[in-house]
Design goal:
Blueprint: H1 24-38, E1 44-48, E2 63-66, H2 72-82, E3 87-93, H3 94-100, H4 102-111, E4 116-121, H5 151-154, H6 160-164, E5 170-177, H7 181-199, E6 204-210, H8 214-217, H9 221-235, E7 239-242
Parallel strand pairs: 1-2, 1-3, 3-4, 4-6, 5-6
Antiparallel strand pairs: 5-7
Helix pairs in contact: 1-7, 3-4
């Protein structure tokens, strides 16, 4: 029989811990495929954040470090500066990157650190019980906003890539989604471009991937992907916000 799919060299055979229907596994596979295609497995150093992605190091067959909550960009900065020939990426969720790690990501982008950031936004705190996150939509219910997020009380959801696009050090910024096959392919292209920006020495690159959370959204996987398409994308529009050569 002809093999249609094989495990990327840069992935392990570890069984996933992610909830059924979660797209973290898809994003992991994309990152591993890109590492293989660019033939940089022996140079890659990943940095795992605190959150659902905290065990990411178990799924990638590359060097990996675990960062304190929100500090992945700072750790990645240190690794890249000490080992400039390495290919360094962080893998972070919205609770980590946009909340406790907001200052870290802003200043890494401001400095133009030559790292790649994979930012998975599922609009909620996934690992710790479904609390409201900085990216939780207005009206969206969570364990800490059971009546729905009230902007008058909790403010509006943060659009991370739009915020970073104001900083000249951010060279490449794009928001993508994994809610269907066509958009998964677009995500693949964006993540590869983010790594290529680093390999070319051009500076800071971040790809925001809109994701679902069936467990904490209290939906089945199909419903959650439809909800993402109908509710998240209108507020977090897809596309490039900064491409190499556009920085001020």
């Amino acid at each position: 029989m002809k093999a249609v799919h094989t495990t990327p060299r840069s992935m392990t055979e570890k069984t996933t811990h992610y909830c059924p229907g979660c797209v973290h596994g898809i994003v992991h596979r994309i990152v591993a495929d890109v590492i293989d295609d660019l033939d940089v497995q022996d140079r890659v150093v990943g940095v795992a954040s605190v959150g659902c992605s905290i065990l990411a190091y178990e799924y990638f067959d590359v060097d990996f470090q675990e960062a304190a909550h929100g500090r992945a960009p700072a750790l990645a900065t240190g690794i890249k500066r000490v080992h400039p020939d390495s290919v360094v990426f962080t893998y972070q969720g919205d609770g980590d990157l946009a909340s406790i790690g907001a200052a870290e990501i802003i200043h890494a982008a401001m400095r133009g650190e030559n790292i790649t950031v994979i930012f998975v936004n599922n609009a909620i705190y996934g690992m710790t019980g479904g609390q409201m996150a900085p990216t939780t939509l207005s009206g969206q219910k969570s364990t800490t906003s059971p009546a729905g997020r009230d902007p008058g009380h909790s403010g509006h959801p943060i659009r991370v890539v739009e915020m970073l696009a104001t900083l000249p050090g951010a060279v490449y910024l794009e928001r993508v989604s994994c809610h269907d096959a066509r958009h998964i392919m677009r995500t693949r292209k964006a993540i590869q471009k983010a790594f290529e920006v680093q390999l070319a020495g051009e500076g800071f690159a971040l790809v925001e991937v809109l994701s679902n959370c069936p467990t904490n959204w209290r939906m089945d996987p199909k419903q959650s992907l439809e909800w993402l398409k109908d509710n998240m994308i209108p507020y977090f529009p897809l596309g490039e916000l900064r491409t190499p050569g556009e920085a001020d």
